[in-house]
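new request in #modeling-help
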Amino acid sequence: MELLLFNAFNGLIQGVFYALMALGLALILSLNSVINMAHGGFLVIGAYLAYTLILYLGFWGALIVGPILAGVIGLLVERALIRPIYKRADPLYSLLLTFGLALIIEDLVRTIWGPQGLPFEVPDIINSPVSSEYFFVTGYRLFVIGITAAAAIGLYLLLRYTLLGIRIRAGTRDLETTSALGVNIYKLRALNFGFGCLLAGLSGVLAAGVLGLTPPMGDSLIMPSFVAIIVGGVGSLFGAVVGGLIIGLAAGITTTYYPAASEAVIYLMMLIVLVVRPRGLFGEEGLFE
Amino acid sequence: MNRAIGIAAMWLALAALPWWMPLIGGYTTLGSKVLIYAIATMGLNLLLGFTGGLSFGQAAYFGLGAYGAGMTLKYLAPSTPLAILIGTLVGGLAATVLGPLVMRRRGIYFAMITIALGQLFYFVAVRWNQVTGGEDGLAGFSRQNIHFGSTVITLDPTNFYFLVLICFTVAVAIMWAILQSPLGHTWVAIRENRRRMEFLGIRVERYVWASFAIAGFISAFAGTLNALLFNFTSPQDLHWILSGNFVIMIVLGGMRSFFGPLLGAVIFVVAQDYLSSLTGNWMTFIGMIFVFIVLVFPTGVLGFFRRRLEVA
């Protein structure tokens, strides 16, 4: 029972990272119509920049500035590379472009910070276990859940109540009409891409505190995030979060009984969802069909 | 007529490859690898370029073919033809079974599901240690000489290259025949205007399924040859990075032309081989090739020259 709780909690933490990644991916997918294969790359950028920034700004500064820098790099990448190919209707090109970016980012990170894993120090105040019985519930893990919840709620409020958020939602529904109503959709899409990358960077910094830093760490998180979106339903941000948490939990629980299948179970769940409910748990009918 | 001469010249050049390849500093195994990747990508191009299905997980079926062949040799029987047959069936049937899950989807969603499905097999290969060799890959098997009655064909690298060339020729002939058939024409029509085909009463989904399955069989066929070439296969043969490489080879050569993927495979495999011997940062250069092709060369090398000819 203890073991089950332990693994389920671990899975939940993994799920939080998947959810945060999937949230950014889904944001970019819906407004920019791009599957950002480089999303794992932005996660790694955020994490490694935070690692370096800790020396100058301390943990709290790095936690804030690292993701913001990942977002700014996202903005620049969008402006330089992705904007020129919006007019191509075939999604093939944006896929290949971000795929190439993913390779470049991983290789550059490996060159700059080295191929071996690096430790990511978390301040003691938030890193001690909350109780001696449930030693695995460290303060940092609760902190991760808290920050993610805050980010998700913040994003919800932004999309629901601010002018920018309303424009983003309008652009997701009908980009052409939004543009005709006088919204600069290029700026909107650039900002949105930056937001997505910022969320990736944030999950990178948070994940670094639990998993440590390695250049391919983005690789292992991006595929489950795709699954999170498919399970949760394409077109639904809420679905992406729920999907991420569900598959994380499922992987954790599976670890208790049959560790070898803990990764495969994520993809099996996707298969089941696709058979039983092809549009995902909260997806809209007819989207991309 | 010009086309026939071109194809004959290409085939002669391929047949003579073991003799001229060493002269320019290459080696026969590299030639085999190019042809194997050409089979896989031309098969994928039936789906990607001719049917318009954006499959980004083709390495799964390539890798299943490779593991199928390797495990046949290791656990079942020491027979090269049997390994090729079983590997092709394993990968192709997997694609056939999974096809219905993706055939209704389009564009981005099609790509996402195919990517994620591919990862399922990757993790099975990584985690099922005792059988698949796990992260280290499947070793401990080797291609067996082929027995024709009393004659024995030894499969040294050169002879194996000729076996690959024969397989390539057969695969190309099959794909060509399919594209000339009503099936192939229906695929192109679906690519051009899916809704119209639906209104005409064509069961579009079944045709996409057929395309997905056939592409899977051909990629798996190539995968079996790849396992036999190196007497080894690893989870990397199932990984989505290889899927992405397949797609870029197709785009690089020209996805609207039949032989485009062959040209793309030649350029990509040679460039990868050369760059990785030159610099540890070859991944960055491969990534830059991706970005460059998308921004500057979206119609591929063949498409580029074709357009130049039309302008002239």
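bot summary: The first strand of chain B starts at residue 146 and ends at 148.
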